[in-house]
Amino acid sequence: MDWLNTIIRTFFDFRAMAEVMPQLLAVGLLNTLIISIAATVLGTVLGMVVAVMGISPSTWLRVPARIYTDLFRGLPAILTILLIGQGFARLSQSVFGPSPYPLGIIALSLIASAYIGEIFRAGILSVDKGQGEACRALGMSYARSMALVVVPQGVRRVLPALVNQFIAIVKDSSLVYFLGLLVTERELFRVGQDAAVLSGNLSPLVAAGLFYLVITVPLTHLVNHFDNKFRTGRRRPAPPTSGLKEVKELDAASPLTTGSNT
Amino acid sequence: MKTPTPTTTAAPDAQAFHGSSLELRNLTMAYGDIEVLRNVSLTVAPGTTTCIIGPSGSGKSTLLRGINRLHEPKSGDVLLAGESALTVNPDTLRTRIGMVFQHFNLFPDHTAEENVALALWSVKGMPKAQAMDRARQRLAEVGLAERADHRPRDLSGGQQQRVAIARALAMEPEVMLFDEATSALDPELVKGVLNLMAGLGRRGMTMLVVTHEMGFARKVADQVVFMDEGEVVEAGTPAQLFDNPRSERLQRFLSEVL
Predict the structure, then answer these.
(1) pLDDT at residue A239 above 80?
(2) Residue B206 sits in which domain range?
(3) Mean local confidence (pLDDT), A166-172
(4) Model ipTM?
(5) Distance of alpha carbon A247 from alpha carbon B185, whole angstroms
(6) Would the pTM of this model clear 0.90, i.e. be above it?
(7) How distant is the Cα of A48 from the closest Cα of chain B, in angstroms?
(8) Cβ of B109 under 8 Å from any chain A Cβ?
(9) Of residues A138, A140, A153, nearest to B109 (C-beta)
(10) Strand pairing partners for B75?
């Protein structure tokens, strides 16, 4: 059973895992979460702007949104991260200091916003046209009917897709290591990789991988649960009713004409 | 047999409306290059009900959408209370014209009273508490006082349409447009909603009603307009149109539907 031993020593060396655990928790997990959550928040805000521009009646808003989306969705994430992380290093230094960390978050946000913008756009467009028309017929402006009625309905529909996007961001956050992070700024992957070099086997990376799964898998299931609940759970079950009940209700509403029409 | 309610008993909150006059002058509307409405002229006196009948695709709905400019007319003019509706701000214009749709178009994530109150606070700038009060009053008038906190999906079609009517009335419009308001309802509930609409007419609302309910048109309308192929074929009193149709097209239409 030599091969089994090799596999265990390579991937499941528990001592190596235990050694890296404090760092994975205190540094890796923390930074991965900070980067991912910050990029998601920024990306969602930017994505909403891109989506609203993308469905605007004005060509001057629609075309830039289209180009922006095509650009950041079409390029490999690693390339965008390197171009932004290194290209704007000077500028970033004067604003955020020497760490590439903020630029990494910004690059991830830009990528995410292109995807999130498309998710929002699809959600908003899927709302029945009658909703916007009803608003306009009541005298609401386009902006107000969007903000109060159409967009909230569209967003609610795409919550599951947004969580998927968050999962993608969690995974892409590992790419930020290319920018050269300080020791205290390392995220899960980098912590795992550094430890793997020291221990001489891949177990620390496996441990890092487990942490990714701990973040992503429950989220997926949570969102499915809520999706089902929102889809089916809001209708109140009611026993069969007689139509006569409502006919009486109607008669009461217009007593002037009871039984006199047709 | 039901004992008829004495006709002198008015509904508790039945205040009078002050409908405005409405006039269409050579109204022409187009989708792209296709003219769907050609040179339609029509005069609706204040507080009267005009029913528009005709086959699907004849431009009835487009006509209504031109009046409140959900679709901008290509040429011609719409006069609301004697003044051109095409030169004013469309949002301001629409607060003066209520519209009720075939498929209700209620906001599904709002309760009935929130549906009615939304435009009151967001367009008219009414304080929210006052808007909700007004909403409950309007809902009570259409017999839905007890369902004010229900969401549209917990209401029947007839109830939803009544919420939609209350929502339009809450804005205190001068004209009401009904676009096949009873076409999507349970057959049993059609009459009740039509009665409600007839009541509005009697209380002085100016109404333009696109409908397939010939009984309603004959009984309630002051004027009936028959449209086909984007044009007004014949217009007149219900008696003129239903008992003495002059055009062959209307005779044919009536022979099919009555």
Answers:
(1) no
(2) 16-96+174-258
(3) 94
(4) 0.89
(5) 12
(6) no
(7) 20
(8) yes
(9) A153
(10) B28
